[in-house]
Every structure is written in structure tokens, then in C-alpha cells.
User: Which sequence fits this backbone?
């Protein structure tokens, strides 16, 4: 005969199962299962009070334990499926119920409530001795056991449909619902994305119209008019370009407090080529803010009229972090007119927007090339715009890493503006003529070797006439423009080298007038004029043209020289 302790252990185990499963039972999407569990716990407590120790009591305890276990595993299965669905789909918790499963729980709940009442009729411990081993007591326990067994059987299987099958059906329904919710959510996101795209395009179109309304010139380094400045040869000007790059990126500790870099040099020393190459490199690195290349003779590029608004326009295009601030500022600015005074333009379109950006932003570099080619009211407006630009940099010094790279010839009104005591602490002046001649000649030799080697009609020139490069370098006297013109001259005329070697070496200035006339009459007009003026090392005086070439020749060449005004001058008399 089993002891009462054994029966108590079984019942206690059943009670523990139900207690541990209480949270799962309450959260499982099976209404009423927690109520059924409470009823079963009550039955267990009542049976424990009887202190029964016969076979019937032990069998009852085991049946109760089986039912408690089945209820717990069912709840856990449903909860696991539910949790996996939520985790996989990342959707809100699905609310799914199975009518068949709910009906079984409802029947179980009703049956256990009835059994709970039946358990109340079993004698308690103080009367147990009197009824011990009596048929009535045994029949009560047996009846209670049969009721629990029936409840377990009906809960576990009905009409060949097991509780596991119902749980699986519920899982499938939950999966279907989750997929449906996911599809709906996906559709909603697509709609929102589409609406956002439409709104984004509308906003960009609106912003684009505002920017385009800003007066701006086609003056950036990519402009077709700057093609002649794109002839940088890798390996030349390395020290200068390295310093410029370290200055632009803020990596040069000695120049960190010098956000304005001024490169000056005579005509033909390669300033614009350096500016072009720096603009190209900085744009690749996302550091180019804007570039404005002045051009003598160009209506939009030989004055200060469009410089600042063009810089603002490009800053918005090239620096995404500045775009919304400049667009907003431009919208307000344009309410006061299209063409405004330079002070208003720089304050409202450049200084103001840049102040709204974090000081930890990456540097933005503005490149302004050939300031000396700004000829419209130059004495008045060039110093003024330079003052405004340098003041802008100074004002933003602790708020935004703005850098300005300027190239120019050493003209008095420009130098006075750039060397002002107000801005001497933020400028880094660099004079090209201070570069050792041997360094410049080495770069020119490299340029000539590389370029002449690629001219089909003169491919063997460097072999048959190894003195070519050294002779042309010597005649260039440190001017890159001469090297470029010499290469262009060779490219334009298959017999150019013979003419150069006959008429240009060793001393051009000792050449007779007839030889020069013969030379210029036998080569193309354009290169004839450019090569002649660069070789003579002095500007071609308009008043002297007729004396050496005749009026018809000069009248043809003169228009070609217009684009090279730096090589042309009028006699002072």
C-alpha cells in the first residue's frame, strides 16, 4: 500500500507544475485555461486534506498530475508559437483564437468546477480514521479519479482531433495573420515611401528653383572655358601641392591658423594650373566648397558682380551639410532683390548659413583663381571683395572650418588688400618666384619630356635630338607658359622643330628680322603669335605689329591674341 507521503508528493508535484505555469497560462492566448488551472489546484488541495494512502488515492493523484502536465504543455506550446511569430515578424503581438480549442478549454473548465464541488464531499483528515478503507471513501476517490480521467481524455482528444492538432491549426492561423499584417505593413511603408519621395522631389524642385534664382556665373573649374588650365602633369609642383593639400585638410599644424592661402606669381608661372588641380583633388575628397576662375574679357567672369552669389550657389551644390541652410537663406535674401550689394550677399548667403553648421564639420575650401583678371572697376571692387571674404573667414574662424585659396599676379591693389594688418594673422602668402629655379626647371623638363613624347609627328624627337628638352627649358626661363606654348607649337606643325632649331637657338634675340618674318609666315597664325610673344619675353606691342609683319598679318593675328591679353600691351606713347 502506498504511503500518504507518496500521494502527497505526487499531488505536491502537480501543484508545483500549475504554480510554475501560472504566468504562461495567464498570457497564453487560450481564454479560460488559467481558470481551469485554478480549479484543478483547488481539487489538489482538497485531496491533500484527506491524507489518503490507498491505491485509489495514489491513482487519483497520478491522474491529476497527468492533467496538470497536459494543461501546462499545451499552454507552453501555444505561447512558444506566439513568441516565435512575434520575433520573426517584428510585428505587434498577434491576437488569434481557436474556437475549437476554446471550446475544449470551456468544457474542461466546466468539468473541473464540477469535480471541485465533488471533492468537497470527501471527508477531511479529522474524520479520515472513521472512514479509512470504507467503501464510501474509496468510491468517492474513484469517482473523482474517473472524472479527472474523463476531463483529461476530452481535453486531449475528441473525434480523432488531438489537442496538438488544434494547437498546430492555431499556429498556422497565427502565421497567416502575421504574414497578412506584414504584407499590410509593407504596403503602408511603400505608400509612405512613395509619398515621401514625391514630397522630397517637390521639395528639391522648390529648393532648386530658389538656388537657380541666385545670380551665378559658369566660373567653376569644370567650366569649358577653363580647359586650357587642366594640363597638370603628375610629378610636377609636388611640394607646393602637398603643402596646399595639408593646409586644406587641416593636417598641417603650422598652417592651421592660416585659413587663407595666397599664391602669387608672374604670368605664365602655372598658378591657374595649380588652382585647377587643387579644385579637382578637393572635389574628389568632398572638400571643395566652390571655385571661381576669373577670366579677362568674359562679361560674367571679369568682375566681382557674381562672385559671392556664385560661391553661395556652389557651396549649396557641393556641400550637402550646407544645402538646407543656404536654400533657406537664399529664399529670404531674394525677397529683397536679385542683385544686391556685396555686403548683404556675403552676410546672408555665406556667413549666416555657415554659422548654423557644427564647428566639427569637415573643412570646405573656396578657390578663387586669377584675381588679377578681374578688370571691371578693379581698383575699387577687387580690394573690397577680398576684404569681405577675409573678414568672413575671420568671423567664422571658431565656428566653421572655411578655407580660401587665392591665386593672383603681384599687382599692387591686390597685394595691399591681402596684406592688410587686419588679416595678416590668417593668411599664408606663397610667391612662386621664391621656388628655387632648379626645382622649376626640373618640373618644366618633366613636362616637356612627357608631352613631346606623345606628339606623333615628333615622337622620335627626344631620341634624335636629345638636347631638345634642355634647350627649351633654358629658353623658358622658369615659365610654364613657354613650355606649354612650345608643346602646342610642336603639335600644330610637323616641321615645327626644324624651324625652332634653325631660328630659335642658340640666341633668338640675335636673329635678323628677315628670319623672323620667314618663320611667322610659315607657321599657323595662332601659334605664330603666341610663340613669338612668349619667346621674345615681352608683351607684343600692338603699335609695332605693322612694322615687322605688315598690316594684313597683324590684322589677322590680333583677334587671336585677344584671349591672351597678358601677352599683349599697348605702347605707352
Assistant:
Amino acid at each position: 500500500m502506498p504511503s500518504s507521503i507518496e500521494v502527497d508528493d505526487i499531488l505536491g508535484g502537480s501543484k508545483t507544475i500549475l504554480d510554475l505555469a501560472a504566468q504562461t497560462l495567464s498570457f497564453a492566448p487560450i481564454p479560460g485555461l488559467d481558470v481551469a488551472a485554478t480549479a484543478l489546484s483547488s481539487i489538489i488541495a482538497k485531496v491533500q486534506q484527506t491524507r489518503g494512502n490507498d491505491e485509489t488515492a495514489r491513482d487519483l493523484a497520478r491522474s491529476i498530475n497527468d492533467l496538470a502536465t497536459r494543461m501546462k504543455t499545451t499552454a507552453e506550446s501555444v505561447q512558444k508559437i506566439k513568441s516565435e511569430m512575434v520575433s520573426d515578424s517584428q510585428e505587434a503581438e498577434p491576437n488569434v483564437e481557436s474556437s475549437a480549442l476554446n471550446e475544449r478549454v470551456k468544457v474542461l473548465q466546466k468539468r473541473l468546477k464540477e469535480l471541485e464541488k465533488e471533492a468537497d464531499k470527501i471527508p477531511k483528515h479529522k474524520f479520515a480514521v472513521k472512514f479509512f478503507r470504507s467503501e464510501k471513501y474509496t468510491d468517492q476517490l474513484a469517482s473523482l479519479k474517473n472524472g479527472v480521467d474523463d476531463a483529461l481524455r476530452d481535453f486531449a482528444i475528441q473525434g480523432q482531433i488531438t489537442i496538438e492538432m488544434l494547437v498546430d491549426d492555431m499556429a498556422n492561423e497565427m502565421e497567416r495573420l502575421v504574414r497578412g499584417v506584414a504584407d499590410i505593413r509593407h504596403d503602408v511603408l511603400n505608400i509612405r515611401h512613395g509619398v515621401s519621395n514625391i514630397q522630397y522631389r517637390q521639395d528639391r524642385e522648390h529648393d532648386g528653383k530658389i538656388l537657380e534664382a541666385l545670380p551665378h556665373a559658369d566660373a567653376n573649374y569644370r567650366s569649358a572655358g577653363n580647359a586650357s588650365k587642366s594640363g597638370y602633369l603628375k610629378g610636377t609642383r609636388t611640394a607646393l601641392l602637398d603643402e596646399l593639400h595639408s593646409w586644406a585638410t587641416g593636417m598641417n599644424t603650422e598652417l592651421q591658423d592660416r585659413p587663407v592661402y595666397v599664391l602669387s606669381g608672374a604670368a605664365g608661372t602655372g598658378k591657374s594650373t595649380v588652382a585647377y588641380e587643387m579644385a579637382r583633388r578637393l572635389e574628389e575628397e568632398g572638400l571643395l566648397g566652390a571655385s571661381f576662375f576669373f577670366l579677362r574679357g568674359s562679361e560674367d567672369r571679369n568682375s566681382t558682380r557674381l562672385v559671392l552669389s556664385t560661391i553661395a550657389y556652389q557651396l549649396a551644390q557641393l556641400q550637402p551639410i550646407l544645402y538646407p541652410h543656404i536654400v533657406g537663406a537664399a529664399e529670404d535674401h531674394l525677397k529683397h532683390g536679385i542683385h544686391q550689394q556685396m555686403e548683404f550677399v556675403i552676410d546672408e548667403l555665406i556667413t549666416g548659413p555657415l554659422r548654423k553648421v557644427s564647428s566639427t564639420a569637415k573643412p570646405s575650401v573656396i578657390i578663387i583663381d586669377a584675381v588679377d583678371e578681374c578688370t571691371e572697376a578693379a581698383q575699387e571692387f577687387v580690394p573690397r571683395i577680398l576684404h569681405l571674404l577675409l573678414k568672413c573667414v575671420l568671423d567664422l574662424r571658431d565656428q566653421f572650418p572655411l578655407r580660401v585659396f587665392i591665386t593672383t599676379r603681384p599687382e599692387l591693389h591686390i597685394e595691399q588688400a591681402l596684406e592688410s594688418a587686419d588679416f595678416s594673422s590668417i593668411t599664408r602668402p606663397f610667391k612662386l618666384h621664391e621656388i628655387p629655379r632648379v626645382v622649376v626647371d626640373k618640373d618644366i623638363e618633366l613636362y616637356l619630356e612627357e608631352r613631346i613624347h606623345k606628339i606623333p609627328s615628333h615622337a622620335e624627337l627626344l631620341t634624335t635630338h636629345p638636347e631638345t628638352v634642355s634647350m627649351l627649358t633654358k629658353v623658358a626661363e622658369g615659365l610654364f607658359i613657354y613650355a606649354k606654348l612650345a608643346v602646342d607649337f610642336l603639335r600644330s606643325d610637323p616641321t615645327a622643330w626644324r624651324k625652332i632649331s634653325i631660328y630659335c637657338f642658340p640666341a633668338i634675340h640675335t636673329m635678323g628680322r628677315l628670319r623672323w618674318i620667314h618663320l611667322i609666315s610659315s607657321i599657323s597664325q595662332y601659334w605664330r603669335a603666341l610663340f613669338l610673344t612668349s619667346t621674345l619675353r615681352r608683351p607684343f606691342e600692338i603699335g609695332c605689329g605693322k612694322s615687322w609683319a605688315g598690316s594684313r598679318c597683324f590684322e589677322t593675328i590680333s583677334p587671336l591674341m585677344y584671349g591672351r591679353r597678358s601677352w599683349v600691351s599697348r605702347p605707352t606713347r
In short: The chain has 24 helices and nine strands. The chain has three domains: 4-182, 224-435, 438-569.
